[in-house]
Design brief:
Largest sheet: 6 strands, parallel
Distance between the termini: 7 Å
CATH topology: Rossmann fold
Shape: globular
Number of strands: 12
Oligomer: single chain
Number of domains: 1
Strand content: 15-25%
Length: about 280
């Protein structure tokens, strides 16, 4: 029952692509691997005949070389605007909910149970489960209702790596700040950091790594350079969802991009230490 969770210091930090790469890396090592995201808010979906999940988890499944099933994304929220979303459970639409109703009537009761059940199924049937968080675990106004980050990491007994988008700036502050805003029991789950989307000479960052280690007692496990990636875009409230046709041609293109991505990530992460922490 091995697992690893990737959480971010913000939305758009690169969690999805990093999980995709790690799925492929561990698959190449000979493990059976599955991705998992307890709750995803997205209008980009993967539709089978009898279920619908986030497209991101379907793409991660290609990286993992595993079957695409509703267990990979047990709860999908498709935003409608004005704080309403269509709620899908195990690939089936169950209701239209206002955010307040979802948080207060669903998330901590049915939602967490549903997500945990799918997580346990994957842990039973795969060597390693690579979990993806949502947004940031340090949204202190919503932490109580957050079933996509630390609560699910607890259920998985999973070590957590925090990834930060250095291209946006403020990456060192976001790592230290995110960690400091977590409860002590959740801080203990965080084993280190990853910097993503870096442009320039990594040696310039090393003095900062030493200060991060002094302040947090945790290391930076790697720096991923900015990389042009031809994979379907992530969801955004400002973008219109475009269907992806799952043709052989498109899948072959995605496979090629996943291979390039996984090689880049493997080269720039301390995979020896990451593999050691996966338990």
């Amino acid at each position: 029952m091995k697992s690893l969770m990737i959480q971010g210091t913000s939305s758009g930090a690169g969690k999805t692509t990093l999980v995709t790469a790690l799925c492929r890396i561990f698959s190449d090592m000979g493990f059976s691997v599955a991705p998992f995201k307890a709750q995803n808010m997205s209008n980009f979906s993967y539709v089978e005949k009898n279920f619908e999940i986030s497209r991101a988890q379907a793409l991660q499944a290609l990286g993992a070389r595993c079957e695409i099933t509703p267990h990979l994304n047990p709860i999908l929220l498709k935003p409608l605007g004005n704080y309403y979303s269509n709620v899908y459970v195990h690939g089936q639409k169950i209701a239209k909910m206002h955010a307040k109703q979802y948080y207060h009537k669903f998330a901590l009761t049915k939602g967490l149970k549903i997500a945990t059940k799918s997580l346990k199924y994957l842990q039973k049937n795969y060597d390693i489960v690579i979990l993806e968080g949502a947004g940031s675990p340090a949204e202190i106004n919503l932490q109580k209702f957050d079933i996509a980050n630390m609560k699910i990491a607890e259920q998985a007994c999973s070590p957590v790596l925090l990834v930060s988008d250095i291209d946006r700036g403020g990456s060192f502050a976001s790592m230290v700040g995110t960690l400091s805003l977590l409860e002590n029991k959740h801080q203990n789950l965080v084993k280190g950091f990853i910097m993503n989307k870096f442009r320039g000479d990594v040696n310039l960052l090393k003095p900062g790594f030493e200060i991060i280690k002094e302040k947090t007692h945790r290391s930076v496990f790697g720096v991923i350079p900015m990389f042009d990636l031809n994979l379907p875009e992530e969801d955004s409230l400002n973008s219109k969802a475009k269907d992806l046709e799952w043709t052989k041609k498109n899948i072959d293109t995605i496979e090629s991009e996943i291979e390039k991505l996984s090689q880049l990530v493997y080269k720039n992460l301390n995979m020896k230490e990451i593999k050691r922490m996966v338990k």
